[in-house]
Every structure is written in C-alpha cells, then in structure tokens.
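Internal ticket #5521
Category: modeling
Description: The requester needs a full-assembly model to guide mutagenesis choices. All entity lines are attached below as received. Residue total reported by intake: 570.
Assigned to: D.W.
Attached entities:
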Amino acid sequence: MLTTAAEPTSSLARYGALVGADLRRRFADEADDPYLAAPMSDYPTRGGKALRPSLCLATCEAFGGATEDALPSAVAIELLHNAFLVHDDIEDASLLRRGQPTLHRRYGTPLALNAGDGLALLAMGTLRENVDRVGPRLAGRVMVEFDFMSRQTVAGQALELGWCRDNRTDLEPDDYLDLIMKKTCWYTTVLPLRVGALLGSSGLAELDPMIEFGFHLGAAFQIRDDILNLVGDPGEYGKERWGDLKEGKRTLMLIHLLAAADQSDRRWLVDYLSLLPEQRHVDEVRNVYELMLEYGSIGFAGEFASGVAGSAMTAMDVAFAGLDDSPARRFIERLVPFMIERAS
Amino acid sequence: MSTTDGDAFSASAAEAARLAREVQGLGFDAARTVVERFVEMFAEFTAASGNGGAAAPGRGWIPPFWLGGTDGSMRQMQSDMLRASDAYLAVLSQLNEASMRFFTAGRWWEPQKAGGDDVSLPDVAPGGRASSRLWLHNTTSATANGLRPWSPGLTSPSGADIPSTAVTCQPERIDRLEPGSSRELVITVAVDEGATPGTYHGQLLVDGQPDIVFPLRVSVRQATDR
C-alpha cells in the first residue's frame, strides 16, 4: 500500500529550474514578438511542476548519465506537453489553465492554435541537439521514442473526442485504461522514464519494465486528476471544477455511473450526454455529480486507482533493478506517492 | 441470535473492505493487460519503422561488447564504452559530411581552400592509434589510374611532428577508379609513446593527382586523459 509522502519539492525545483532556464533561453531571441513568442511562452512560464522533465532528468541520473545529456529531451517533453495543453484547451473549450485564463481566451483561438503548433515544432528542433550531445546512435533511438509517443498521444486524444462526439455509453473500465495509456501515460511517465534510462545507460537499459512502471504511475495520476476535477479545491487545482462533467468526458466515474445507475437515472444521463456542452445547464452538471456520489462512482474510481497504483513501487524496483542508491533514485521513489496522492 | 449495531457496523465495514479489494483487483488486472499489449505494440512499432540508427532493436538487444552482469560498476563501465563509441561515430559522421561537401561541390580535382573542411581524426593518447574513413569519388569524366594516398606527416604549432611513416592508408593504392565511381579509404595515424600532447595538422595527398589535398587534424591527449 502506498503511503502519503511529502512533496519532493527541492528536487522538483532544481530540475524545474534547469528546464525553465533552458526554455527562457529558447524564447529570449523572439521576446518582442507579440503574436508568436508571447503566446508560445505563456503556458511554459506559468510555473507548472515540471513533473515530466524532472522524471526524465532524474531517471538519466539514476542510470549513471549526466543531467545535461537528457536536457534537450526533457525540454522537448515539456514543450510538447504545453503544445498538447494549448490544443486540448481549445478542443475542450476550457476556461482556466494553471489558475489563469486559457491561451485561446487570452490571445484568441487562431493565435493560440498557431502557438500550439509552434511549441510542438520547437520541441522537434530541440531533439535535433541530441545528435551533437549524445551521438547519432542514441539520438536516433530517442527520436523513435518520441515518434511512438506522439502517435499514441494524438490517437488517445482522438479516441476521447470521438467518444464524446458519438455519445458512446457502452464503455468499460478497460476502454478507459486503454484511452489514458495513449492520451496521458505514455507522454507523462512512460516516455520520460524510457528516454531517461536510454540516455543514462547509453542504450544499455532494458526499457520494457518502464512501460509497466510508467503505466501504473501515470494511470493512477490521471484517475486522481479526474477525481480532483470533481472534488478538488478550485484554488489549488487550477482548472474549473466539474469541467469534465460539462464536457461529458468518459472518465472512470462516468463509465461506472452509466453501468450502475438504475433505468430512470441512466436514461436521464444518456439524454444529458447527447446535448452539446454549451447546452448543459449548471444544475444538470451538478446533478451528474450528485448521482456519482449516490452510486459510489467516485469511491469506485478511487479504489480502482489504488489497485492500479498498488504495484507501482514493485514495478519501479524491477525497472531500476541493479542500480546503486542515489539522490535521483530516491527522488523518483518519493515522486511516486506524490503523483498518485497529489491535491493539485 | 439478534444482531447488535456494532456487529452490523463490523459486517458492513467488512463488506466494504471486501468490495474495495475486489475493485482494486479489477484495476490491477486491467492495468496488467494494458501493459502487456503496449509492450507488444512498441516492439512491433520498432520492427516496422526501424530503430532510429540503433545497432539493434531495444528489446533483448545485447551490445557488441556486452560483458554481462547488472551491478552498478559493470553497467557504468559499459556505459562509458558506449559513450566512447558514440564520440567516435560522431567524428566519423563529421568526417563523412566533410568529404561529401568537398566532392559534391565538384572540387574533386581542386585544392582545398584555407579554412575549409578539416578532416579530424578521433583524439588519441600517446602510444595509440586513430582511424577515420574517407571516400574518394571520381566526379570527372575520365578514369583515374594509380592513385596512391599518402601524407608527408603532421606538425603541431609547437614544432613537434608525427612522421610520414606513422600515417597509413588502406588500400595503399587504387589502381583504377572509373568516372562516377567511389572507393573508401581508411586513414590511420599511429602516435608514438613519447609524442607531445597537442593538435597536429597535416595533409593527405594522392600521387598522380597534384591538386588533391585533404587537410588532416589529430589531437594527442595527455597520457593520463581518459
């Protein structure tokens, strides 16, 4: 059973500072460009936790590599993450991101879309630096990792958008896990772990165990994120509460509710989901939330997440087998409960 | 027998715990299924799309000088060896780019301009040898015969030198090179045990082709450098 641990703040801050400095350097050349550089640098400078790049840098160190060797890849992960967020926020018509207006609300949708493209392309350019830094052999393997991850992420996003568009109400928890593996886990945890291990070991590390560890960690992280959208403190969470309910997102809670609700409640819920998000009234959104409480959907998701997360530490032991104890390894050990039981 | 409130509470709590374990088990099993599927998917992906220049696909790959074992020092040594190999490949890559620029610019028979492409060999310690590859492309319309590559030696700014005999080429002689055809050369510089550390510059010439000049450069490290 995982236990709550203090946020590994100092290490996160150290890795975050490295990535932040690198990002600022990349944006500095275009600092006076109000149409591209300003919206591109907006999200990355809002002070996220830099979990993904930190995981990559720490894994590289844990495998004996130099932090700098993984820096271009870590920065590319952060840039891609922000590119995904910009486009996600437009697709979901989200209002808030990290406690501030979303990019399309601040700059308008056309400029925000373009900035998202710019962030993704900047990430690809950053990866090119790996050739000089770690040589063509490892740089090529890192590109394969990013290639696979990018395909999974957009496929997962398409799946989620498609389920909403077609008002799918026949989904199972397995479908949800498949979705979040593609949409979230691969780029949030699996890729940072694999690339960090790849670079830290000069390609010697066995990378398959990183899929298991990354999935257990990332899936629990995502389910927790979905629960926070329902019950989190809006001030701490940084996004609008119940946004997922308004968008009709097929979360584990919604899938459970569709399966557990009696005939009458289910019929109402299916009708609700057939509306466009902007047609859903706040009272109806609240009613979905209350039904989730009534049918135990949130409790179900919490226990399901515990089952998924329960073997994360065991999977980590396998993935990091044979490595010496190090501050980087201890940081990752502390990161596991932090990501799974976070409040924001 | 009547049931007290406490018993009812205990029974209810036990039932809740059982249900919780059941749901946790569901999550664990479902997660394992997804992981197994994606491990296979990634393996199929790398098999179908190539592996980005890796010596072999990631899963189950044993590097050419794998020494076995999983302890930290062994892994560190293997990592160091692979990093050295990567550095060597990076130099080769630069060298290939240099020769390509030289020839695709149509300057096959032209002398190298000062400050132009420099053919760098990997750094070497005294007593060691450094090798690099080079391609000769005949971009003219005439057959070239009796090409013998050689170097008059390399010299450092301090006046130290690496003699002509320390620079060898394989093959030693190319009897015939047809128009549009190419041959690979391997240049090796053997550095004497007593060589003075520093950067040495020289040239590679080809007998019978007075205008062909390849600048050569090699850095001799301190004997104690890794």
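Resolution: model delivered.
Comment from assignee: Chain A touches chain B through 51 residues (CB under 8 Å).
Ticket closed.
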